[in-house]
Design a protein that fits this description.
This protein is α/β, with parallel strands linked by helices. It is 25% helix and 26% strand. It binds zinc ion.
Length: 276
């Protein structure tokens, strides 16, 4: 009896040793995020900045950018936000002078093609929220698993209809989600701008942690002063989400990349250049 038990103990120890010995080798073979590309997904001009800064900058015009991000992970590609619809084209007549006029000098489809990435290669598509400057091209990737908060998915649009094609494969989230199961890409629930708004924490091997804001905050000035735009769905939840983002950034030493902030984007490199 004694010898059998001894043998079992020895075997367990061997298995444990093997697991430890193999873990670093597997990591070196390329687990986690390999590359992150910034794709240009719209150029906007707004006639009245005070929409985002209530009581300040009344009738001050401003330019903004709109980004999408393609993440190349060892397990597959993920697209974060899809921008303004490719179909609007580069020349759009001015609309409401106080609203935003969007142009699309480069399509998302063309930028993916330039990288040699086919829509069916994209395993996941996640959107920060369902405003038109973020969901314009979700159906460019009809087979990609859509990762969206349940609260956002079920939020009726202005006409009371659904915000996504009902046949699009979807995983409805209720909170944060570790997308690839290794902690490298995490959807962070940041409600407030819309009912089910979400942001994305990406951990790159060289660049380090990045928190992609979505529209949890629109511009650096808003972030610095924690200003909540007048049109947000829930002001209190927006403030809570911003506080949570600051905590996550501190804990994970992450930079904040603010989706619509043009001055910040001018410091960044666009696809086909990439971050790793
Ligand atoms: Zn937006």
């Amino acid at each position: 009896m004694k010898s059998v038990k001894m043998k079992a103990v020895k075997l367990t120890a061997t298995v444990a040793f093997a697991a430890i010995a193999f873990a670093p080798a597997a990591f070196a073979q390329g687990k986690g995020v390999e590359r992150l590309y910034i794709l240009e997904c719209g150029q906007g001009h707004a006639g009245d900045m005070s929409r985002w800064t209530p009581g300040q900058n009344v009738n001050v015009p401003m330019d903004m950018v709109d980004d999408c991000f393609l993440i190349k992970h060892a397990q597959g590609y993920m697209l974060w936000d899809t921008g303004v619809s490719d179909s609007i084209g580069p020349d759009v007549p001015p609309g409401n002078p106080a609203g935003i006029t969007w142009r699309r000098p480069k399509t998302l489809a063309a930028q993916l093609a330039e990288l040699g990435v086919k829509p069916d290669d994209i395993k996941y598509v996640a959107v920060s929220h369902t405003h038109p400057d973020h969901v314009g091209n979700v159906e460019l990737v009809p087979k990609s698993m859509l990762l969206v908060q349940k609260a956002e998915y079920e939020w009726p649009d202005a006409k009371g209809g659904p915000r996504f094609a009902p046949e699009h494969p979807v995983t409805k989230l209720e909170g944060d989600r570790d997308v690839f199961g290794d902690g490298s890409v995490t959807i962070i629930s940041t409600p407030g701008h819309t009912p089910g708004h979400q942001s994305l924490l990406v951990k790159l091997p060289k660049t380090g942690g990045l928190l992609l804001s979505g529209d949890a905050v629109h511009f650096k000035a808003n972030w610095d002063a924690r200003v909540v735009p007048g049109f947000n769905f829930d002001k209190e939840k927006t403030a809570t989400s911003m506080a949570r983002m600051a905590d996550i950034m501190a804990k994970d030493h992450a930079q904040l990349w603010i989706n619509h902030d043009k001055p910040q984007r001018e410091t960044q490199k666009l696809s086909p250049a990439f971050y790793e």
